[in-house]
C-alpha cells in the first residue's frame, strides 16, 4: 500500500503535465512536451 500511495501523487502530476499542452494550445506543445518527457524520465529513473 505504501508504494501505491507514493505513486499516486506522481501519476497525478504526470497527468497534469501531459494535460498542460492541450489546455494551453498546440503552439506551446513543442516547448512543453520535451520538458514533460524529461521530468517523466527523471521520475521513472528515481522511482526505479
Question: What do these coordinates show?
Answer:
By secondary structure, the chain is an all-alpha fold. The chain has one domain (2-47). It has 2 helices and no strands. It has helices at residues 2-24, 26-47. Helix 1 (2-24) packs antiparallel against helix 2. The mean pLDDT is 75.
Question: Outline of this structure?
Answer:
By secondary structure, the protein is mainly α. Helices cover 94% and strands 0% of the residues.
Quaternary arrangement of the chains shown? single chain
The proportion of strand residues reads: under 5%
Q: Structural class from helices and strands? A: mainly alpha
The overall pLDDT, averaged over residues, is 75
Distance between the termini: 17 Å
Count the strands?
0
Helix content: over 70%
For the CA atoms, what is the radius of gyration?
12 Å
> Biggest β-sheet, characterized?
none
The general outline is flat
Taken together, the total number of domains comes to 1
Spell the H/E element sequence. HH
Unreliable spans are none
Structure annotation, total helices = 2
Write the layout of secondary structure elements.
Layout: H1 2-24, H2 26-47
Helix pairs in contact: 1-2
Features of this protein?
2 helices; 48 residues; mainly alpha
